[in-house]
Amino acid sequence: MAGQQAQNIQALLEAEKEAAKVVQQARQYRVQRLKDARSEAAKEIEAYKASKDQEFKAFEASHAGNTQTVQASIDKDTEVKQQEIRAQYEGNKEKVVQKLLDRVILVKPELHRNLKKLN
After folding, report:
1. What is its quaternary makeup (predicted)?
2. Rounded distance, CA 20 to CA 10, Å?
């Protein structure tokens, strides 16, 4: 009977060792699957980024011509308005200087309206 018990104990120990190996393999498999899933996700992210970058560059290229055209139009309008302002400046410069000189040179001394005459 003692021999039978020893064999049963030995069989249980071997079964426990086998179960520990199976659990260890399952853990390793799980860790490997997580690593694989992460690497696959990283690849998908990179592919998605690349496709979105291409879309953005295509959008940018298609609208770049519009931007340059609009900028040229704005520059032209600005130049026209600057020329108008310069022309008005040149035309009115002498009048403004003359008005300033008249105000400075032609002084009419008179009492202030708030000053009352003392009796």
Report:
1. V-ATPase is a heteromultimeric enzyme made up of two complexes: the ATP-hydrolytic V1 complex and the proton translocation V0 complex.
2. 15
